[in-house]
């Protein structure tokens, strides 16, 4: 090979490397949270079921009764009650998440499980009981931290089961997130029928998530409601991974919310703060969930906050707003 050919080959090689370097630099600059994302933000707090009793997640399965494995109680609040929600707001929460089951008399009861045996002194399915019957139950009956030797919340939950309407009325100017627990479109239609009676300004403060079928039922009737399911969140993130390097936010990511496990956030273009800024501009909330995400793991202790990105200005999912608020808002 002549020296002239070698020189030309080297020039082409360096030109190619220069183009690649420029492209990589441009990609970094366009998606650098450090260079372009907002700084100095403070987290917004989503209180999962108000202030709840927490429990270790090791060995938890879909059918595990978590009430029988709680940590020794540091408070007397029972999840999904108005008193626990009020305590969370008083502690500094910005939004409350709560669960919904439909009763035998077609009422929207605020309760987590589809059956009663785990947490209460009742038996059978929630949907097989009337609201009046459910109100007579003790919501704290089944909670124990020592394998059943003691039940510290027993007797403290009688008559505390609220309806969705009562929660909305109790917190008229606050952000609420409703979890449709069963993948039944009829339950989504029932919730949508109630939400449709609310004025537009109140509806703007309420979000819905849960199973795909009921969430679709709500979204189809009330497209102005921020609604999300596992499918909508997956569709958004897959599309964003494919195109987000350009700064484009796909339509699937607009006017919704993302419950994003913190360990997967780093995969997102512009993570963390530029990603949050882009989604906020698309009217989408980014809610950071601790760990892998399948069991609604919250940022509940000071040690949990070590995994939160610096200057995080999105949402944090917590079961203990009373513990976390003073740590993130000194």
UniProtKB/TrEMBL annotation:
PROSITE patterns linked to this entry: GP_PDE (PS51704)
Domain GP-PDE: 43-330
Coiled coil: none
GO biological process: lipid metabolic process
GO molecular function, one term: phosphoric diester hydrolase activity
SUPFAM superfamilies: PLC-like phosphodiesterases (SSF51695)
Pfam family, one: GDPD
Name the UniProt record assigns to this protein: Glycerophosphoryl diester phosphodiesterase
Organism name: Micromonospora pisi
Taxonomic placement: Bacteria, Bacillati, Actinomycetota, Actinomycetes, Micromonosporales
